[in-house]
From TrEMBL:
Residues making up the signal peptide according to the UniProt record: none
Record: residues binding GTP: 17-24, 79-83, 133-136
A cellular component annotation (GO) from this entry: cytoplasm
Residues of the full protein shown: 6 to 457 of 600
Job of this protein: Function in general translation initiation by promoting the binding of the formylmethionine-tRNA to ribosomes. Seems to function along with eIF-2.
Keyword Hydrolase attached: no
GO MF annotation terms: GTP binding; GTPase activity; translation initiation factor activity
Family of this protein: Belongs to the TRAFAC class translation factor GTPase superfamily. Classic translation factor GTPase family. IF-2 subfamily.
Domain spans labelled Tr-type G: 8-223
Coiled coil: none
Name by which UniProt lists this protein: Probable translation initiation factor IF-2
UniProt entry keywords in alphabetical sequence: GTP-binding, Initiation factor, Nucleotide-binding, Protein biosynthesis
């Protein structure tokens, strides 16, 4: 970043995994804060971003890391609530995350959302490591708080140690079923061709030094060139969430992956119908080591550089979409920037037919992923949009010619109360799920029943 004089930005690390496998706890442990305790029912309601500077990384990693080996400024972690599809968020020409941690509960192994995450990591060619979490739950395990994993493993009984091995080999086997060659991380030489499995406990901190060491090494070794950006150029980012914020109106939670953004600058944001052109009223920053979603008082800043998670307050953001691009205009021609945003949006545009179902999804990227899956399943789409299911969606679906098309497939979005009532009244069938293939399966079963 600018502050330390390097032209290297912080790598963006996505934390993915099945519900309850320990994503938030893992970040929490790294951060040493207690975000999880502030969460309703310990479920993450929103995406948060946490910057862990290099000095903290090396403090946690202890003897495993020599900070002088690194010149990347640290790591920016993005937590993903189990119900959200961070995996489908994009940046210019690729995945938003530079690296990912796939969290897998050693007791549960691979679950539907683990597989969905794997598929999207595969498609987007995002390098990742597997955090095999909850090793402290192995029967007979004797925790050694915050210890490197090999050290604590050696201190266990033979029985506990080999039970853990069994669970780890199961995960390695499941990875291999998905086409990845994987091994315990300490045996992996080339982390691009092989997936390293890092046994950890978000509860006791065991293995966390290893996880940070592997991530930092992966980023430094293979990603340094991608991290070299024009740190003072006009900012580029992706909308994570569109949120109402007291005193600010509609705001955007944005991950800035390139350049800078300044107060009062004109930005272009992907909107439901047209790109939105507006002026930044305030840039709100979570304090270092804090999460956007737990911060009740934001820190106003004049300027911020990539990579960072920021909240942007500006007028006219109501139609902004999660997953859409954000661009700072600065000294460029505004029409060019609008065209750029439009071009990026059209890349994601879903092909629609005159007859078909209505699809609603939480982000542009997930809409694209669903459309691809539906194309494969040969289910035609009449309308596809980002956003909650609203009464007008029901109206659109009810005009379909065939009963099997009088349906709405809703992915990770809410159904507004009056929409639900209207669906009942007009015989429009609603399908809701946070897993794409379930949505499609349920729809296909429904069609089979109709045709019986
Ligand atoms: P969602 O955000 O809902 O998808 O869940 P998550 O993946 O963020 O899981 P979370 O961190 O909320 O953890 C789920 C539960 O598992 C909580 O009750 C945690 O206390 C527990 N847990 C997480 N990691 C560990 C671990 O390493 N050991 C033990 N024993 N429990 C853990
Ligand atoms: Mg969580």
């Amino acid at each position: 970043t600018r502050e330390n004089g390097h032209g290297l930005r912080t790598p963006i690390v996505a934390v993915l995994g099945h519900v309850d496998h320990g994503k938030t706890s893992l970040l929490d442990k790294i951060r040493g804060s207690t975000v999880i305790e502030g969460e309703a029912g310990a479920i993450t309601q929103h995406i948060g971003a946490t910057a862990i500077p290099l000095d903290v990384v090396s403090k946690v990693a202890g003897s495993l890391i020599d900070p002088s080996d690194f010149d990347l400024p640290g790591l920016l972690f993005i937590d993903t609530p189990g119900h959200h599809s961070f995996t489908t968020l994009r940046s210019r020409g690729g995945a938003l995350a530079d690296i990912a941690i796939l969290v897998v509960d050693v007791n549960d192994g691979f679950q539907p959302q683990t597989l969905e995450a794997i598929n999207i990591l595969k498609q987007s060619q995002t390098p990742f490591v597997v955090a095999a979490n909850k090793i402290d739950t192995v029967p007979g395990w004797k925790p050694n708080e915050d210890a490197p994993v090999q050290q604590t493993k050696e201190a266990q009984s033979d029985r506990a140690s080999s039970m853990l091995d069994e669970q780890l080999y199961e995960i390695i086997g499941e990875l291999s079923d998905e086409g990845f060659s994987a091994d315990m991380y300490w045996r992996v030489q080339d982390f691009r061709g092989n997936i390293g499995v890092v046994p950890v406990s978000a509860e006791t901190g065991e293995g966390i030094p290893d996880l940070l060491t592997v991530l930092m090494g992966l980023a430094q070794r293979y990603m340094k060139e991608d991290m070299a950006i024009d740190v003072t150029g006009p900012g580029a980012g992706t909308v994570l969430e569109v949120k109402e914020e007291k005193g600010f109106g509609t705001t955007l939670d944005v991950v800035l992956y390139d350049g800078t953004i300044r107060e009062d600058e004109t930005i272009v944001v992907g909107g439901l119908d047209e790109p939105i052109v507006t002026d930044v009223r305030a840039i709100l920053k979570p304090r270092p080591l804090a999460e956007i979603r737990t911060e009740d008082r934001f820190e106003k800043v004049e300027e911020i550089a990539a990579a960072s998670g920021v909240k942007i307050a500006a007028p006219g953001l109501d139609d902004a979409m999660a997953g859409a691009p954000v661009r700072v205009v600065r000294d460029r021609d505004i029409e060019e920037v609008i065209a750029e945003v439009r071009a990026e949006l059209s890349e994601i545009e879903v092909e629609t037919q005159e007859q078909g179902v209505v699809v609603k999804a939480d982000t542009l990227g997930s809409l694209e992923a669903i459309a691809n899956a539906m194309d494969e399943a040969e289910i035609p789409i009449m309308r596809a949009e980002v956003g909650d299911v609203a009464p007008r969606d029901i109206s659109v679906a009810s005009t379909a010619g065939e009963d099997k098309h009088k349906t709405i497939l809703a992915f990770n979005v809410d159904v507004l109360a009056d929409a639900e009532q209207q669906a009942e009244d007009s015989d429009v069938k609603l399908f809701e799920s946070g897993v794409i293939y379930r949505l499609i399966e349920e729809y296909e079963e429904y069609v089979e029943e109709l045709e019986r």
